[in-house]
Amino acid sequence: MAALTWRPAAEALYCIRQPGTLWNGLMPLPEGLEPRCPTSGTYRQEVQDGLSRVEQYVAPGWQPQVLMGPLKRAGYVLLEDETRGPQHYSVFLGRSVPAELYYTAVPDGPNTLITVSGN
Questions:
Q1: Short-list 118, 113, 66, CA closest to 94
Q2: Entry pTM
Q3: β-strand 34-36 against 111-118: which pairing, if any?
Q4: pLDDT given at position 64
Q5: CA-CA distance, 35 to 9, in Å (whole number)?
Q6: Is 33:87 a contact under the CB 8 Å cutoff?
Q7: At a CB cut-off of 8 Å and minimum separation 6, what does 43 contact?
Q8: How far is CA 40 from CA 14, 29, 47, 88, 118, in A?
Q9: pLDDT tens-digit map of 7-50
Q10: What contacts 89, CB < 8 A, 6 or more positions away?
């Protein structure tokens, strides 16, 4: 018997304003990444109220820095490296100081869950 995994329809992804792009249209989303939104009601409300932005992606395998290259090519620089260990990668990025983006990657089963958040 096959297990079923529920995945919301793309239009149900409240945090992805422009499907198929990274950070609300900054660039096309690199292949192999699956968009997702945090399940937290607090995040949902903050995003819907325009107080915060957050996007999540699942990458196959352990690829904690898979979006760092595209973000750097878009002009974001590493402002502070907060790497916490082999199973958690997090940094602050920006085009200026203070940091504009918080990027974090953690294991999601055999994959990587990447969260990009900011204002």
A1: 118
A2: 0.84
A3: unpaired
A4: 94
A5: 11
A6: no
A7: 15, 37, 52, 54
A8: 11, 23, 11, 20, 16
A9: 445 446 899 989 999 998 999 999 999 999 999 898 889 999 98
A10: 64, 65, 83, 104, 105, 106
